[in-house]
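In the laboratory, one determines a bound structure by crystallizing the protein with its ligand and collecting diffraction data. In a computational setting the workflow is compressed into a single prediction: the sequence and the ligand go in, and a structural description comes out. We illustrate the idea with copper (II) ion.
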Amino acid sequence: MSAHADTHTHDDHGHHHKETFVTKYIFSQDHKMIAKQYLITGVLIMGIIGILMSLMMRLQIAWPEQPNVVFEALLGKWAPDGVMDADIYLALVTIHGTLMVFFVLTAGLSGTFSNLLIPLQIGARDMASGFLNMISYWLFFLSCVIMILSFFVEFGPAAAGWTIYPPLSALPMAQGGSGMGMTLWLVSMAIFIASSLLGSLNYIVTVINLRTKGMSMTRLPLTIWAFFVTAIIGVISFPVLLSAALLLIMDRSFGTSFFLSDIFIQGEVLHYQGGSPVLFEHLFWFLGHPEVYIVLLPALGITSEIIATNSRKPIFGYRAMVMSILAIAFLSTIVWGHHMFISGMNPFLGSVFTFTTLLIAIPSAVKAFNYITTLWKGNLQMNPAMLFSIGLVSTFITGGLTGIILGDSALDINVHDTYFVVAHFHLVMGISALYGVFAGIYHWFPKMFGRMMNKNLGYLHFWITAISAYGVFFPMHFIGMAGLPRRYYTNSNFPLFDDVANANVIITIFALIGGTVQLVFLYNFLSSIFFGKKAVQNPWKSNTLEWTTPVEHLHGNWPGEIPHVHRWAYDYSKPGHDEDFVPQNIPLKDGEEELQH
Amino acid sequence: MTAFLTLIIVLFIAVAIWQMVKIFDLAQVGSDSNDQVATDKDNKLNGYLMMGFLVFIYAITIASFWYLGDLPLMSNSASEHGPQIDNLMIISMVVIFIVQTFTQFLLHYFAYKYKGEKGRKALFYADNNTLEAIWTFIPVVVLAGLIIYGLFTWTSIMNIDESEDPMVIELYAQQFNWKARYAGEDNTLGMANVRLIDIDRANILGVDESDPYAQDDIITTELHLPVGKPILFKMRSQDVLHSAYMPHFRAQMNCVPGMITQFGFTPTVTTADMRQNPDIVEKVSNINALRLERKEEIEAKGQELLYEFDYLLLCNKICGKSHYNMQMKIIVETQEEYDAWISEQKTFKNSLIVAEEKMDDIITVDDESIQNENEEAREELIVN
Ligand code: HEM
Ligand SMILES: [Cu+2]
Ligand SMILES: [Cu+2]
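The predicted complex, in structure-token form:
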């Protein structure tokens, strides 16, 4: 079914238009270049900004309301005399959350690795539409610029939390950030969603139509399965957020009452009547929960590939892995209500959502056990990418387990919106997905830049990051179990919480260490682009097709014909072969059986 | 001072890292081209580090329990349904704890045990339906148990038993404080809507003055509850979302403008008794020891130096600038104490200001201070 990918060979694709600097590096339609653009903009630049914000929040939490040169330098007028303002704390919370979830781990992660790997691993010359792909990146770029610009408007950026629940987000009199800042947030996110939809549609169409001969769906590497299903979830759920954003814009600017009713603020009654904030919560979380998996599934896909390659073993339970990706995707669209147990929605609905939520733990558990079994009796190559993948499994388990508490409506009554939640989602979604990104970068750096990253710096980066991630987020569960609410500018008005103040200082120290060690990564990344050791064609001895392309990038990926595929991606250490890997394009030997999966 | 300290720490870390970078860079010189792939030596080192990391995970778990393990959300609940939630919480925690300890062990131990060696071949082992069935089935059973237990608990908490004739109290949220409205003798709250708010007449909750049920309502800024009496809270908000969080009672419900939400519980321990509870006594003395260390700072802020235990109602939904300081004291007391207190409070009818009356009513004063607060907030915005 996918043979036609071969009909347009490299010659009629690559040579008949001359590439200028602009078409090659800026308005590029080549998926490999677009992947790098996403990597630099989404992961690196937005990631650095997001981390800086989190460190500033941590400084404020550990030493509340004390002057700090960092604040003075970075926040300017919002830190008079170097003391952080309460409004800007909420703005930092909001923009940190937004950047991390959407810009770094949705656009950055999928944009980089789906773009890079989908064509290379399925055996295609490029994405189905290079042009849409380019538009998608530039829309993303525009949304980044607008989001950052919101720091320079008079009353500061949006500050209603990344969930922007109205009425707080709808009424400029409720909060400074709900004026121009929120307008920019909404515009930026609307553009972001357009970009994400274009990207996702492209990924879906490419996977369905452009697989090379022999690349049946059951031979797809798990990376591609994950990217493919992620794109489908995105297409299903992002439009709902877009509609919520548009309705909110209407409420804000055109006087409608979708989400607002009976409001008295700053001495006056507003005209809104009949709307409900709870409706917004439903719309938001209809995206919001699947979003967690949009962030996580690509990271799990990357991990599957890297763990199999570096264990020199087939991924254990390929079919179960695919099934659990599909099950997670399906279930993720019917669990959103677990964010709303105490929103005032009917308690019976709460029961339903508890049920669906705890169901989703099952495919997640299957995945975790399958990873562990893949390691069993392997021959583990401890490359930095492998370390980050193992680290991902570890944080995925630690963070995922507390989901059992949060998903249980009766227990959520008490821990909802406390630091217990902050600890939970950072581990299971934030840190896990971030490890996925790092693993992916270390693993595919040679493919992207033709050079190797320094492994020793990679080890240093991993171990310090791993220790600080647990150091930050593990004790945080306990602070949550003391009942400390999140999004508090300072806890000093509650002597009740004085006994966790020291723990907060320790957490901040871990956060500073963890933040600083990312500089090692940055140095390694940037210097390796220019001075790294030249990469060989298949440095990790991997089976997938991207390693059959030459080290130098070609427009169209393969110089000659696209290789055909004869086996699945996981024939590692297969008995009867001399090498411990058999790439997908090697035909079966006489009498060799393909594994029935 | 803190700023300086932070700067020093950051600088120190940066320098340390820089030096390590240099050392690692030097160690690199003169190796061949595929040398950035892990060698047996790397595998060995990182394998050991994996075991080290396992120890670290266990250690941080133990340390967290040791220093932060009094877990106020799991012990000494002060409501009738509290122990149900606490039991479920303890059971879930134990399950989690076991699974965590076990799976982290397997993960890190395998990573150590099967660290790569040149020439060894991994086991080609791609599938095993029995195994997979086992680890689908075990979570199913465990989760089914938790779901069933959880749903029973949830239903029994959320379904309010009207036949018990609970006392009705409204919790009213506004940026950034709480009010309580007691239903009075008739135990029925008068109708209310923010459109009826009339600041000049001190009708700050928008209670319908013509509603006969409203006349005996009582509006207060402190929440007093008689011990052992079922309470039904009706929540309202006048501006943005807030959340009425009463952690000691294992109670929380959002306050939503345009809608009335509800939550019911029965307080079981008076404030006075709770202050005698040995766990609480210990906690309070810990806190006070810490507060004495920070004496100057606290007094400079104008706070009470010594802490005394009180139940609290906190706002737990981001609601604007002073979200972090939106609280109300809750006092659980005996029926007699409660009766004495409530009889001193003004009823709604008597709290209203007739046009010529002077502005000396306690609630008006309070309300003015709110106005001032808002005014201040606004001014600050403009200054910014
Ligand atoms: C360097 C590591 C990080 C640190 C130290 C950190 C720290 C923080 C802090 C202090 C908060 C505020 C908590 C509150 O008051 O509610 C926060 C919120 C948040 N963080 Fe992070 N974070 C880190 C990484 C990440 C990553 C990788 C993600 C990606 C998912 C992420 C996503 C979020 C989200 C979604 C919020 C909630 C924002 C909101 O409440 O609206 N963070 N983080
Ligand atoms: Cu969710
Ligand atoms: Cu509030």
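DSSP finds ten helices and ten strands in chain B. Keep in mind that any predicted model is a hypothesis to be tested, not a measurement.
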